[in-house]
Design brief:
Blueprint lengths: L1 E6 L18 H10 L4 E6 L7 H11 L3 E6 L5 H14 L4 E6 H5 L1 H4 L7 E3 L4 H11 L11 E5 L2 E4 L23 H4 L16 E4 L2 E2 L10 H5 L4 E2 L2 H15 L3 E4 L8 H13 L6 E6 L6 H9 L2 E9 L3 H8 L6 H13 L3 E8 L6 H14 L3 E6 L7 H9 L11 H5 L11 H17 L2 H10 L4 H19 L1
Parallel strand pairs: 1-2, 1-3, 3-4, 4-5, 8-11, 11-12, 12-13, 13-14, 14-15
Antiparallel strand pairs: 5-6, 6-7, 9-10
Helix pairs in contact: 1-6, 2-3, 9-10, 10-11, 17-19
Length: about 475
């Protein structure tokens, strides 16, 4: 039996070039590692190869799969998965199609309406896929007990989501040998972002799943559970060694918000890196400041950490406590962490969100004043995007906070402008405020402009042009 795992070309979505850059399909490589002993596996990444629909059709025909597994990274890219399933069924209606990923897990009843999908995998798929392949090969008497939604005789069968995998050490290392790793590790297509690596080859590291904080705007708890599950120090170090020895990586990105959650474990990982000659530049992409103190920051820096992106979210206590409701920390602690990390030589970015339901104009201004006071090297300001299966989505839906025409499954409608209405301000007010405050806070001082231009490896003149392009795009967003 032949299984072909497919990443859609997300570039076919409008504005996707501003949201993503190619990264190794970790999830598909892990799934492949789980089943390559019981079936032939191939991975097609239409995104990294920038395939047109005809290109993808030709690649699937050449692969000649019995089963096609399609992943969709997020709800706003949902149509890309449907496109791929349509292409597969055009080639042959006998090819079985499976949809997995965030979209499948969060919106299975939407996805299953498309008859081009035979199965929707809901939840973590490592055991579900293996059991499904065995069933299709007639090596198992029945379908997996949990984790699938599908149609049978025209009626939807919902077997519920798969159980969360408790022992992540039992999951094999990703089957990176099934992809051309150099395509993902030696360059990035979105260099004009401060969180991109600057040392190549690089890799992304995934060491845990789940989040116990339950922030109202976040899907992570619904996707991977509220219990923090993690791989051991030994398993993480084993993967770093593999990436270094086999693929020659010289830097890596930690792509998880709770890498620092278990203090004993993270200290074990960082100390092992130091002791086993694995020190290299690494980036903490989405860091919770509540986990950090000066001792941990010094250890992070000693192990090679060069960049830290801090998820601050708000500068208003009411918004943090009553609306976000998840992680909590004092503003004083955040200032101390950011200041000390910069003192140690890390480049620090801070993320903020504006436009929460019931958030007032003055509270938004307070958040922006705090962003300026925090004085991170770089400040990102996001308009709130309510996501399905979150507390905030339920609030917006129940109390009518969505702006007219809001479309959760449309990237352009969701990301380029504010999505939530208020009696105090319009969506356009927030769209304008966000862009001009981003420009003022980040580039109002020469020292910051010079430091960020250096981080982005561009001239100050190039930086000026980037800022102008962002401002010009603002007016298109409003239109």
């Amino acid at each position: 039996m032949k299984l072909t795992l497919i990443v859609p070309n997300y570039r076919l979505a409008k504005d996707a070039e501003h949201m993503y850059y190619a990264y190794a399909p970790y999830n598909l490589c892990v799934l492949a590692a789980r089943v390559e002993d019981i079936c032939e596996v191939e991975i097609i990444d239409a995104y990294v190869d920038d395939m047109s629909r005809p290109d993808l059709e030709a690649a699937i025909r050449k692969s000649a799969p019995d089963v096609a597994g399609i992943t969709v990274l997020m709800d706003q890219m949902a149509h890309s998965g449907h496109d791929v399933a349509g292409i597969v069924k055009k080639i042959s209606p006998n090819i079985l199609t499976i949809l997995g990923g965030v979209y499948a897990t969060m919106n299975p009843m939407t996805a299953v309406e498309d008859d081009n999908f035979d199965y929707i995998c809901v939840g973590e798929g490592e055991y579900v896929l293996r059991d499904l392949i065995k069933f299709l090969k007639k090596e198992a008497p029945s379908l997996p007990e949990k984790g699938l939604v599908y149609k049978e005789n025209g009626k939807i069968v919902d077997k519920g989501r798969s159980a969360f995998i408790e022992d992540l050490n039992a999951i094999p290392l990703p089957a990176y040998h099934l992809i051309d790793f150099d395509k993902y590790s030696k360059e990035v297509s979105r260099r004009n972002s401060v969180d991109c690596p600057r040392t190549f080859p690089y890799a992304r590291l995934h060491t845990s799943r789940g989040c116990p904080f339950g922030c109202s705007f976040c899907q992570v708890g619904a996707i991977s559970g509220k219990t923090f599950r993690y791989r051991s120090v030994e398993k993480v170090i084993e993967e770093i060694k593999l990436l270094k020895d086999r693929y020659g990586i010289k830097s890596f990105i930690v792509s998880e918000s709770n890498f620092l959650f278990n203090r004993k474990r993270v200290e074990g990982i960082l100390n092992a890196m130091i002791e086993q000659d694995l020190v290299m530049p690494w980036l903490s992409e989405d860091t919770g400041v509540m986990h950090m103190d000066k001792d941990l920051l010094k250890l992070m820096r000693k192990s090679g950490c060069e960049y830290m992106g801090c998820a601050i979210e708000t500068g208003n206590d009411r918004v943090m406590n009553e609306i976000i409701q998840g992680k909590r920390f004092s503003k004083e602690h955040a200032i101390e962490v950011v200041s000390f990390a910069k003192e140690l030589g890390m480049y620090v970015a801070a993320n903020f969100i504006i436009g929460f339901p019931t958030e007032t104009w003055d509270e938004i201004r307070e958040t922006l004043r705090f962003a300026e006071l925090l004085n991170a090297d770089y400040t990102r300001i996001f308009n709130l995007v309510p996501l399905k299966n979150t507390k905030l989505w339920d609030i917006c839906e129940k109390d009518g906070f969505f702006k007219e025409g809001y479309d959760h499954f449309n990237m352009t409608a969701s990301w380029n402008a504010s999505s939530v209405r208020s009696n105090e301000y319009s969506p356009n007010d927030l769209t304008v405020l966000r862009v001009f405050e981003w420009d003022r806070i980040n580039f109002g001082v020469a020292e910051k402009r010079i430091k960020t231009a250096k981080r982005l490896e561009m001239t100050e003149e190039d930086l000026k042009l980037m800022r102008k392009k962002t401002r010009d795009n603002l007016y298109a967003s409003i239109k």
